Amino acid sequence: MGNDVNQVMLVGRLTRSGELRYTTGGSPILTFSLANGYQIKKGENWEDAVSFFNCQLWGKRAEALAPYLMKGKQIAITGQLRQERWTKDGETRSRVIINVSSLQLLGKKEEGISQEQNINNHDAPDALPQFDDDIPF
Predict the structure, then answer these.
(1) Distance CA 91, CA 119 (A)
(2) CA 103 to chain centre
(3) How many CB atoms lie within 10 A of CB 93?
(4) Which residue, of 13, 55, 82, 137, has the greatest Cβ tally within 10 A?
(5) Quick one: pLDDT at residue 53?
(6) CA-CA distance, 123 to 117, in Å (whole number)?
């Protein structure tokens, strides 16, 4: 099984603000849900559709990014799918979550957060400077 690949990359919007919790051992975990929109063809027309994904981010980055993960914010993530299994009322249940390995904030700078704070936040390694859209590529 050493040759298996499990890699997910998504861009979407948060359906709710991130929820920061701590395990009994004190490890920070940030949970959030990501909506990913796409279009499907039905007959001659294209219709909007959306999928929802439960995500988890662990460690110091979870604490550092929690204040920025607000409902409606567009983000890009990469991570791995993980299946959780448990038994409830004698019935085996499961769900698939995305264990986030990297997260990037997208879209316009939020009001109340200065550009300087965003660039100089050493606790959030994924915080990158934003550039003008006028740069030609």
Answers:
(1) 49
(2) 6
(3) 10
(4) 55
(5) 96
(6) 11
Residues of the chain with pLDDT under 50: 111-133, 135-137
Q: For residues 128 and 116, what is the distance between their CA atoms, to the nearest angstrom?
A: 11
Q: Which parts of 15-131 are beta strand (E)?
A: 19-22, 28-42, 45-58, 74-88, 91-105
Given a contact cutoff of 8 angstroms between Cβ atoms, the answer to whether 107 and 44 are in contact is no
Domain extents in the chain: 8-119
Phi, psi of 100, deg, nearest 5: -75, 130
Pure H helices in 29-69: 60-65
Question: Rounded to a whole number, what is the distance in angstroms from the first to the last CA of the chain?
Answer: 41
Q: 97 in helix, strand or coil?
A: strand
Which two three-digit tokens encode residue 13?
Answer: 């919007």
For the record, the structure tokens of 3 come out as 């040759």
The single-letter code of the amino acid at 121 is N
Q: How far apart are CA 18 and CA 26, in angstroms?
A: 18
77/10 Cα distance (integer angstroms):
5
Using CA of residue 62, residue 63, residue 64, residue 68, what is the dihedral sign? positive
